[in-house]
């Protein structure tokens, strides 16, 4: 199984930007659908964005659409989440996740249960 390590979190003011990275081990990264989720204090983990194995298809939660961009570089075994126009409600621990089933991007990839591997998370805090 792949190991995932997130980085790039931090403290930023409202309206600022951050880019998160998710570095994956293993030679089959390019066959996995990947996703970003987040969990705010006292709330359930929620879907943020997902990307197909090739990077050609993406899907976003309505709350981040137009502000966040998910991408991947299969040569570097790395996925990214560019976050712009950040709001205090974006404050959360952000997790990357991998689906090992080698399937196309599906609506189910909005669900936590579709993913097999998770990173440890990186904290994003947006101050008002």
Short description:
The protein is mainly beta.
Verbal overview:
The structure is a single chain. The chain is mainly beta and 128 residues long. It is built from no helices and eleven strands. The protein has strands at 4-7, 10-13, 18-24, 33-39, 46-51, 58-60, 68-73, 78-83, 92-99, 117-118, 122-127. The strands form two sheets. Strands 2, 4, 5, 6, 9, 10 and 11 form a seven-stranded mixed beta sheet that branches. Strands 1-3-8-7 form a four-stranded antiparallel beta sheet, with no helix packed on it. A hairpin with a 4-residue loop joins β7 and β8. It is globular, with a radius of gyration of 13 Å. It starts with a strand and ends with a strand. The mean pLDDT is 95.
Rg on CA atoms, Å: 13 Å
Count of DSSP strands = 11
**Proportion of β residues?**
over 45%
Report on the biggest sheet.
Answer: 7 strands, mixed
Give the proportion of residues in helices. Answer: under 10%
Could you report the average pLDDT, rounded to the nearest whole number? 95
Termini separation (Å)?
39 Å
- Oligomeric grouping of the chains: single chain
**What is the 3D form?**
globular
Poorly predicted runs of 5 or more residues: none
